[in-house]
Batch of 4 targets.
Target 1
Amino acid sequence: MRGKEAKVTIYDVAKKAGVSKSTVSRYLGGRFHELSPKTQQKIKQVIDELQYRPNNLARGLKSSRSYLIGALVADITNPYTTAILRGAEDVCKQHGYSLLICNSDNQPAKEREYISMLQSHKIDGLLIQTTGGNSDFLETLSENGKTPIVLVDRKIPELPFDTVEIDNRGAVMQAVSYLIKKNYKRIGYFTEPVAHFSPRHERYTGFQEALRLVNPSHPSLEDLFEVDLNDESQLEKKLNTFLSRTSKEPRAIIAGNSVIALKIIIKLKEQGYKIPDDTGFLSFDNPEWAAAVFSGITTIEQPTYQIGKTVMELILKRLADNESPVQTISYQTRLIERESAPGR
Amino acid sequence: MRGKEAKVTIYDVAKKAGVSKSTVSRYLGGRFHELSPKTQQKIKQVIDELQYRPNNLARGLKSSRSYLIGALVADITNPYTTAILRGAEDVCKQHGYSLLICNSDNQPAKEREYISMLQSHKIDGLLIQTTGGNSDFLETLSENGKTPIVLVDRKIPELPFDTVEIDNRGAVMQAVSYLIKKNYKRIGYFTEPVAHFSPRHERYTGFQEALRLVNPSHPSLEDLFEVDLNDESQLEKKLNTFLSRTSKEPRAIIAGNSVIALKIIIKLKEQGYKIPDDTGFLSFDNPEWAAAVFSGITTIEQPTYQIGKTVMELILKRLADNESPVQTISYQTRLIERESAPGR
DNA sequence: TTGTAGGCGTTATCAC
DNA sequence: GTGATAACGCCTACAA
């Protein structure tokens, strides 16, 4: 039992409204001043009756606008990521764009495949939290395809793209000086492997800088730990290294992001350590569970939603005018004080 | 400074390879047996050189396949949702599809707009966690557009669509009998407003059934609380109602999902209640933080990733053959025992 | 204000 | 095996 006409096209609307395709097209394009009120009304009515929806594929083929924005992120399962996407989506919707979301899993190969795929779909813009392994590809996309690309979170020095990030250096600095003011003598910094990821790198070196500012040979200059979370035993080992060598001093831990923070917290629990009695704790990001763990975890909040919004706004801006100079927008973070690092 | 040719089309490839468009098209379509090995090789080479990517818009216009799958969910910010999307994405990628992700925020109006938008993009299939307010629209999409639609999580009785869900009734039953076995005498069930959302409804009534099975006039038949989380004070009020009227008995709380679970936990902490000493606790979903809160929260885990995978598999199946009868796949849940309901 | 006539990049149906 | 050629549904000059 078929419904009405299988597919209704602009031609069907035109016919039924007794006008030509171009006229309907004008209506669709919002060029109302070129149409008589009567025609407008008639077209509107027919569109409603027929439940006509313009075909974006056809539209895009002609106008070379797909109204699709690619969002290529490391991991959509990470709340940090979804918050950003949420911001991006709201702006998209407002402007008639849709988001094509892909996960690279931090694998350059996967990222590359997705870039190709997105290119096929003729995306009008790309939001990317890049693995850093496909600069050549991205440059081609940007130059040949003229596709606006905006980097989020992770920047790439050699690429001349707009970037939205946070002031990572400032953020760690603030964290460190907060802990030092609270009289913690040893501060362990735990991060996922720094590799070539700019935010991890900036936080890592920022941490060192901050310590040196206080004391050029601060003992915690050796309390930096990169841990690969895929390796089950690594975290425990490094955590114990830190805990055992600082057992007699007031100490605190900074987690480089909320993923590793959660792992650390669970490990600490397993081993019977209490926050903040046995060790102070402070985490990057401000995950929803921060208030529910121990007596609340002090965190460094990023304006994630705003970041996503801004990315899309930059893309839209370039879509309107691609000539403005490349810019990097760096947001300040906010330290949310809870009870996990009350001082000693 | 322009790169090479701005856009490279099938025609450019054909010209450079010294063949016709049709031949290249055959190659792209994977019909290798219709091509001489020499031609194949030549085309492959030229494609690489030119970095040619077929234009999906044109391809879709002709073949009426967009290779786009719509994913219309309530809230991408909810970890439950992203886990499902992750499963869906992996299947998509494997088959050359991309995911167009949209948030309805549980608002039928927004959902409706997105359905229209997705229709415009000529999606080849739709994964939807529906608000329930757009059955007419969905039916049109399915009938006229012949677009396979699969409902996730929430079903709609009047719609003849494939559905993937969990056995909600079974899940609560298991939870309740677990708590009763642990000797809890009063069990409070907290849920977001049930309204017309099938999983919430099934859990709600399942809870009642489970109690009646034990005792047709079980006192906790009145311990059901629907709370609107947008109203700041509501949760606190209802929570206190329950806590005060059960203060002298062994009691536990079941949270209908991880969102409300977290809110309850935070409220309990604020007011100085301890889990499990002051009240047992058990939550639907198995959020990442479950192990980090108090001494671990006992949860009902859903196979979220698998659910997403299954949805996409159903869509693909219908894309290949739309004649098979409508089916509902219902997954069993798993109770993950931690320390939040050890019994009294 | 409205209609006519291409053409966007593919695929598919013919011939050769 | 391969090559012309006509759609697909829409947009945009250019005419009227």
Target 2
Amino acid sequence: MAAVETISLATCEQDPALYNERMRAMKDAIELLSGKWKFCILLNLYNYGTMRFKDLQETSTGITPKVLSKELQELEENLLITRTVNNTKPVTVSYALTPHAIETQPVINALVEFGLKHRTKIKGNYLAQPPVGTPA
Amino acid sequence: MAAVETISLATCEQDPALYNERMRAMKDAIELLSGKWKFCILLNLYNYGTMRFKDLQETSTGITPKVLSKELQELEENLLITRTVNNTKPVTVSYALTPHAIETQPVINALVEFGLKHRTKIKGNYLAQPPVGTPA
DNA sequence: CTGGATCCTAACTGATACTG
DNA sequence: CAGTATCAGTTAGGATCCAG
């Protein structure tokens, strides 16, 4: 109970307006990108470029067509991806990132970095002592 | 429908192992930090340093005690915050960030930056033309 | 192949009241 | 002050089926 240090940054405590603006911006971002799949889809598109519906369904392991469809619509409405219907025999649809989607890359990178560090961090701690919520 | 460019990065298509590792890390991070309040709480603690339960309830506008309690427990289990019971008359509890929580700062900053840019971006587009999902 | 329709459940969220 | 208990509403997400 004793050996855990704490930190305090208090970056913009002295500027409430700036703080509120940043808080609102963060809530905007969360509302837009939260959920189980949005970042996953974006990362796939970053990696593979243009993809079709089925490609995304396969790379986003576990997603169902309905959910994928909904996620894609939301991303399109927010101008992060484009949807293009191709004039092929069984109709195909291509999805790709918009230039605006580049703005999400720092978020994705930060999430990945945190995930990598956190996994090693947690691993060690959980081996040393069980998580706090453990019954007894 | 025509004027929207697309981009393609295809950063690590040639290294599936690295890609999968990054994907898993991102999913870890999402599982841990997703939700309506986690980032909000972390940002508050960044800004104000040590806070008590009631402080957090007031700055995280809209949150109920039950939800706040749960979010705090999860953050504590994941070693992002510490919980300290103070020996005061009506007992008080202090919450603070752990050093490990510093790793979340790039994520938070990236989210804030994206939120700021996205708001201006979307504003203009929505004024020019309604979002895609509009009935008619 | 794309993805909508339907149904369903677990989880999240909220309001209120209550206890140590 | 710091929560937990209870009750209730909403929703995200999944399973399955089917249509263009």
Target 3
Amino acid sequence: MRWTRAFIPTLKEDPADAEVVSHRLMVRAGLLRQVARGIYSYLPLCQRVILKIDEIVRQELERIGAIELMLPILHPAELWRETGRWDLYGPLMMRLADRHDRQYALGPTHEEVVTDLVRHEVRSYRQLPLSLYQIQTKFRDEIRPRFGVMRGREFTMKDAYSFHADEVSLDATYGEFREAYSRIFTRCGLAFRDVEASAGEIGGDVNHEFMVLVDTGESVVFSCPSCGYAASSGRAEAARVAHEPPAGRDAKPLEEVATPGKTTVEEVSELLARDPSEFVKTLLFQMDGRTVAVLVRGDREIDEEKLGRALAVDRVEMAGSERVREVTGADVGFAGPHGLPKDVRVVADYSLAGRGNLVAGANRTGFHVTGLEIGRDVEPEDWIDAVRLVGGDPCPRCGTALDETRGIEVGHIFKLGTKYSEPMGATFLDEDGTQKPFLMGCYGLGITRVVAAAIEQNHDENGIVWPTAIAPYEVEIIPLNMDSARVVEAAERIYEECRAEGLEALLDDRADRAGSKFADADLVGIPWRIVVGDRGLESGMVEVARRSARKDMARFSPEEAVQHVRANVIRERRGGASEPKSG
RNA sequence: CGGGGCGUGGCGCAGUCUGGUAGCGCACCUGCUUUGGGAGCAGGGGGUCGCCGGUUCGAAUCCGGCCGCCCCGACCA
């Protein structure tokens, strides 16, 4: 391709509305333009990258026997009503009505649609297992789209769904997808990590996220440097310690102290000169119509996702200030665990286990209590793990201090079981002659997110450094002076030869000066570069350089240059370990 | 939705406080010179100052409303 025909609108300056590197570079290098909040046009260079990632995904999924198909984007409401998700999914789903006022959604995910297809077409266990996938645009009306393509409202996703007659088969396929994902991300040049995760809206219990570890990532990952345990923040477990009641200890009596106007742990901590870790934070939640008091150590936070899972409820909400007043008889900020109404369920987080002589709200406006003992003054119905971990917390498996890192979630795989097949009546006839609901798995991979993640991990101060396997072009030919007939002629010949050798070549045939061509070449990040100038041609030479190591420039004759690049590109095309990594 | 910020040629910004002829850099067009890391000179084109309303002799500037975009929190591939 010739640059003058390629539509690569590069920018000299950083766009004002882009914060993270990948977003900035995608806009500057002419890959991306915003149309509206969370909605983008992918320009030709970006489309080439996407197609390469698609191809890697296809190869690896075909390899494990998954079959590509295309499901509709427009989904009738009835299908979503069958699983109850028409209401559950909430405002995250883009909805619209047709001319007959029938309701539709723009598909945010496709469990209902594939399950509908399979229940109509698959009758027997003999047709199982079955893995179907598509690469398609998804729509989610995100609360806050951000970081460019990282969280868009419209984005490209590869989603796969597997159907099984039994657990053994589901487990096997789940494992195959897990391996396929590892191969895909490795080939895309990503350093990633798969971690235990929480299932969110999709459902199912066993699931893993694939995280690309970068500081700008939106997700938080905890990993154990010694035993290999790794989990995302909504899933990561705290070490569980049994609580010992105060009997053997020399416990102090429960006493009220005046703390007028001091409603936060920090304020009371300062007033009483007690460390926040000696406090009980009493948080009131509303779940399934019931009020639950959740007790957590004063210096820690509750993770609502973990809380919901620990108590097996779909939705947890903080209780409103009126409800708090009703339950505690005090203003917000003075809730304590003791003497709450009997209909309030009290649960304690393990962060409080083993703690005594605690400070808590007195359930009386303007007062707190000291000397509180769990087991004496309050008996929690359950001990649960709902705390939000922080780096340095002990590993739940081996006790080593956990590392906290940030990551971009590029893939998420789930064992769904019969969560969708059962309500939708999707059954098959098993070997023993009985109708059974399909066991299902589902496997998501954010294609456009992979593009952003790849840039986050492969760039320098001058621009993108594409891994060859997903680079928009493999080699860029730069004639330094378009007014020099022999430079142009040599560059054209090299360009033609590259193409004849099957290399994806970009010829910068713009009449610009050398400096701006180099700057754009760095920005756009094509892995190999052949520079043609009068100076070198004097002695019949051109220069070959890698984008990732510009200093290692080498001189070759034009023919040798093409062969040198070709040999390297062929080796690098498949991606993976041979790629040097930066960032 | 809560909190913070921004909206002025294609891009990046100044001008707004203190109302008075819309400006700078880059990009773009023409010509000459230049040609190995974002060239120089000369000439030129392009802006309802986000939108609607108000105040005023006069509004980019003051007031009110609306819209859009970015950042921080809950959501997720």
Target 4
Amino acid sequence: MANSLQDVVRVALQVLDTHGLEFASMRRVAAALDVQPSALYHHVPNKQTLLALMADEILARGRRTDPNGPWDEQVSALCHEIRDAMLAVRDGAEVVATASAFGLGAGEPEQRLIRMLSDFEHDVAVTGARTIMLFVLGHASARQMHEQASATGAITYDPSIGSPESFDLGLGLVLSGLRAALPVRV
Amino acid sequence: MANSLQDVVRVALQVLDTHGLEFASMRRVAAALDVQPSALYHHVPNKQTLLALMADEILARGRRTDPNGPWDEQVSALCHEIRDAMLAVRDGAEVVATASAFGLGAGEPEQRLIRMLSDFEHDVAVTGARTIMLFVLGHASARQMHEQASATGAITYDPSIGSPESFDLGLGLVLSGLRAALPVRV
DNA sequence: ACCTGAACACCGTTCAAGT
DNA sequence: ACCTGAACACCGTTCAAGT
């Protein structure tokens, strides 16, 4: 039976999760779909686009409805949501990071962050959202890259490198910086 | 005449700067050295290692002696030094970012940052240095990736994306967060 | 609409052999 | 010590042709 774009993205994510980004080739995805490599180009114009769709799917799978409560708790919850979603797939953070350079994947979460920071001056909200996003993405990415590098034996594993504790500490630092920029309530 | 490892790294950086990371292949570096591809493996065990050496060289070229003055001015100066060094070479930030996952390249600057934060509790200094490093690296990386993506025509160019202004604002946010954690002087 | 089969222009890496 | 030449096992992408 014929495959849909959805099938392609889903199977591509499976290949990514089991083999890692390095071996997530178009040819492997095609093989996993029991199809010739050229068949993929009916669904997608190139690999870059497929990676972007995968990034969207990774983030979509973790999506929860925004909580209410103080802005900092909202932001913290969203950051954990994004982090968990990326860590749920092997090399997921790396895929989201590269896709976000094309304005895809990470753009939507950043908009949600900006909305949560609407009590701030607009410039501060925009800068804050981007800084938080860079931290969340970079932190998860560093963790997964270190995992992969140490699995290959290229380096000795350091459990502190992408730990939840260091994530909360770093995020706390940025949130604390934001609090200092909070305009006084009228 | 025979090439040294230094020559290889230097020419590899030239290839990177003129063609971009995507086309910085071992074969192209070999061609630029007027040598067979296999000859590179006399100097370097694999491409990953060559990239790590390139990352070190990128950062070394921007290295200045640490200034004295208040800690936040020292940190800010160092961050600009690292950023400028990475931006001086096409896709330089991306190369440093991937190399840093292997404990190379970005490790030394991070140690310098920790030293500048020695007035803080050790945990705070370590977290602060890493968070700052993630920001500087991620910010420069996002800028260069966006430049490359928009040059390919895949996306419309947005000059605000890796601007010096947004860099200073984001860095200021993190520094402000650190100030809140500063222990009171005795 | 979805796919096959064959081809093109590339990769990184290995290895025996040369000087 | 530094390099050649040939090979191996891969890539992403294109394109005519099939159903």
